[in-house]
Structures are given as C-alpha cells and as structure tokens.
Amino acid sequence: MFTRIIDGRVPGDFVWKDDAVVVFLSIGPLADGHALVVPRAEVDAWTDLPADLLAHVMEVAQLVGKAQLQAFDGDRIGVIVAGFEVPHTHVHVFPATSEAQFDFANAAKDPDRDRLAANGRALRAALRAAGHEATVPAD
Predict the structure, then answer these.
(1) Each residue of 17-27: pLDDT tens digit?
(2) Which domains occur in the chain, in start order?
C-alpha cells in the first residue's frame, strides 16, 4: 500500500520527500499533524533495514517531530514503530500530551479532510521555516 502512495497511484499528503524516505500524514491520526516516515525501499520489518537507512529514517522522524512541536499542541513527540497494519516499515510521529495517545484505538476513524489538509500545510510550513525547503513539497 505505501509503495502505491509513494509512487502517486494512491493519494497522500506529503510533507517530506528525499531519495531515501517520504513523509506523509496519517489518514487515521492520533493527533493533529500525525505523520508517517516511510523508506522508499519496501522492507517489512524495521529490524531488516540497513543501518544507514534506519539512521536516516530516524533522523527525518526527529526533524519532523521538531517541526510538529512548532506547528501543533503537544508536550512531547510520540514515536511508534509497530508495523502490523501495513507490511512496509514506517514510523508514526505525532504530537502527544499523554501516553493515552499512544493507543491506536484512539485514532480518528473518519477525520475531517479539510483539517488534514490544514495540518499538512502547517507541517510543511514549519519544516520550511526550519530550513528544509529542498525536501518539502509545494502546497
């Protein structure tokens, strides 16, 4: 599924694109700005990623998390690597105010599309403001 999003065959609200990873918003967010950091390489388990790619995935997750702190409410940035729902490595990165937000049972089931689009614009703006213009797609 993620490869189809990466290739543009399924729509995704991208906030980051480079040669190794992409970042797009979750369609079942745990919080405003919830994003998925996904390597372009189709590798199921994160433990199977080459060390350099895993390091880059986590570096991008940290940059996205810093931008989320600027763009959204949250005391911390949550990170989850679960991998059960889609067999393609991905890191969930989201603003959090409590550990209760780490439960996927709390994910929005039918999020407002306009709100998701606004969240994408806000996150892209925060990433650009942090100096990452080269990797942030146009609105």
Answers:
(1) 999 999 999 99
(2) 2-131 (3.30.428.10)
Q: Which member of 34, 88, 90, 92 is catalytic?
A: 90
pTM (2 d.p.): 0.96
Residue from 87, 86, 99 nearest 27 by CA = 86
pLDDT tens digits along 110-136: 999 999 999 999 999 999 999 999 999
Three-state DSSP class for residue 31: coil
> Active site includes 34?
no
| Cβ 53 vs Cβ 61: under 8 Å | no
Residue 119 to residue 114: CA distance in whole angstroms: 9
Alpha carbon of residue 53 to chain centroid: 16
